[in-house]
């Protein structure tokens, strides 16, 4: 009887070995199994083939934030059964054998997120045991798409998925199942992890999904891999130096602008901070989806430094040229001196009013003995004295106008200087609040990252 007729007459093909050795078993495979590698190994095509899948994560090679790609190295294993295959281990001399992969039917199981071809070393053999179960294991270098959320960089955690499914076979032909509990896969992956670099494996979950499309359904096995970034490098190289520079700029407000060139000091800080950001730019992730909170922090720090420099320039100008400025507009007085001054606890000191001089129309009257006619009688001799008094009155009036003008000019100058002091303190308080909030946020994120 031919091998083909034997296959369809007998639901299970028991391979007959002439001798208990590998050569005899391989000859039986060549005769009864290998010729049927083009079809699913079932007695009836109405019977689905059950395939068990698991993988072990050996290495996390890297994450490309810009391309949204996760690169890993895994060992993928699949198990299925050839229904019409069995042999007697005693008769054939072994309970399992490795045969070329191309000589057997293999399921078209792929990872849905795969965006590149497998560049791992090729393996050419599969293992078959005496009950007909086939185990196909192979290394896979996976470059998979992953939706990365780097808003909390460098304290971010990413959750990427590996979806195993068949391209051509619906669950009528191929049914997928988990070969191992996901807890065992996680434990084994952590124990065998060789390369992690910037990332560490945090958790793994899995579930089976049934995809319905075009009137058919496909089984999908989805593994979710949770990764956590190691933030120490970024804290030491990015966050701490930036905090030092911004704190130093904060304390520069203590320098008196009247006697110290505060602007030169601040310009040096801005230059140093800009060079620092340029040097550390390669450490920052680049992606079009979200802007990391750390990038916003750096931008605000630089904006505050530039704002403090502009404020220092304004104050220096006010201190040296305030006497040449016109009177303070009313809206500026209300907004800055009254409102912001109270807000920063820097109210204007009350000034003592100057002397009050007589009005221009006041007259100097000279009386002699209290009699009006006596004045008329003495008008001739006292004309010179009245003239001197009138001259003195005009001089006093000129002095009064000069004093008032000088007092008003000083008042305007003091108003502008006070406005500069209010703005200086307001920016100092704003600076201190921003730094405090930033420090608290960074520490809170770090504590949450550590406790996860």
TrEMBL record:
What subcellular compartments does it reside in? Postsynaptic cell membrane
InterPro entries, per database record = 5HT3_rcpt, LGIC_TM_5-HT3, Neur_chan_lig-bd, Neur_chan_lig-bd_sf, Neur_channel, Neuro-gated_channel_TM_sf, Neuro_actylchol_rec, Neurotrans-gated_channel_TM
- Domain Neurotransmitter-gated ion-channel ligand-binding, residue spans: 38-230
Q: Does the keyword Signal apply?
A: yes
GO BP terms in the entry: monoatomic ion transmembrane transport
**Record-linked Pfam families:** Neur_chan_LBD, Neur_chan_memb
What membrane topology term does the record carry?
Multi-pass membrane protein
Query: Where do transmembrane segments lie in this chain?
Result: 231-255, 267-284, 296-316, 328-345, 426-449
Q: Which family does it belong to?
A: Belongs to the ligand-gated ion channel (TC 1.A.9) family.
Recorded protein name is: 5-hydroxytryptamine receptor 3A-like
Give the originating organism: Coilia grayii
